[in-house]
């Protein structure tokens, strides 16, 4: 097993049940001062990454909806070191799933499941919600929001004014507040994208939180 996926999170407000396996307690450092630019400095994510938040589903429920297989419980180091992302794995996605409150956090090392519409839409059915960001690796970022089985927002950070999705206007105020719209172009949009996800979910994707989570390592067929 050489595939890697991982994620770390921290809530902006206290969340019930955070002491359970795979979850993390909120830390005092959470909030507007949270460091969202850390992925660019993380040697384990240099090839790119995809972070996905899924509301209301547990790790096992996510695996079942995606038709995948649970492998084992691992820590951050086991998920990302050493890792080669999806290189050489053309038929399966590999990812790590942790829990923070009512959200599951999926991390992929250079994977794309989180922004693959035909797969991820199933995780948002029945009034669910999915927030995902694919970034790093020297490529433009992609931010998506799925709601109730539909793609509500699709943003390519290289062309932020050309918003896609069924209801992009609903997200404009938050996109502007986090710097993804209406301001000067940013060289690395990751910090703004993770701030957007935190504003929508109440969950902050910081390096400190990621290192505290336990992950369920999962493999999912790509087709």
Automatic annotation (TrEMBL):
Q: Which UniProt keywords apply?
A: Signal
Signal found in the keyword field = yes
One Pfam family of this protein, by short name? DUF6461
**InterPro entries with a match to the protein in the record:** DUF6461
Origin: domain of life? Bacteria
**Could you identify this protein by its name?**
DUF6461 domain-containing protein
Q: Give the range the annotation lists for the signal sequence.
A: 1-19
């Amino acid at each position: 097993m050489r595939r890697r996926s991982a994620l770390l999170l921290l809530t902006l407000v206290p969340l019930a049940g955070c002491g359970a396996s795979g979850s993390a307690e909120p830390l005092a450092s959470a909030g507007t001062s949270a460091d969202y630019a850390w992925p660019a400095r993380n040697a384990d994510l240099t090839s790119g990454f995809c972070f996905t938040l899924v509301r209301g589903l547990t790790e096992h429920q996510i695996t079942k909806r995606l038709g995948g297989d649970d492998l084992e419980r691992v820590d951050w180091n086991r998920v990302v070191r050493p890792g080669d992302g999806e290189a050489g794995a053309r038929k399966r996605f590999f990812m790590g799933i942790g829990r923070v409150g009512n959200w599951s956090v999926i991390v992929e090392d250079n994977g794309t499941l989180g922004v693959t519409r035909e797969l991820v839409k199933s995780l948002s059915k029945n009034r669910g919600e999915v927030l995902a960001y694919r970034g790093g690796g020297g490529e433009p970022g992609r931010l998506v929001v799925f709601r109730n089985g539909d793609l509500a927002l699709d943003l390519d950070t290289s062309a932020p004014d050309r918003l896609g999705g069924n209801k992009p206007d609903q997200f404009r105020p938050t996109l502007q507040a986090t710097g993804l719209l209406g301001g000067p172009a940013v060289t690395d949009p990751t910090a703004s994208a993770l701030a957007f996800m935190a504003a929508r979910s109440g969950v902050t994707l910081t390096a400190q939180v990621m290192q505290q989570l336990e992950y369920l390592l999962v493999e999912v067929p790509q087709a």
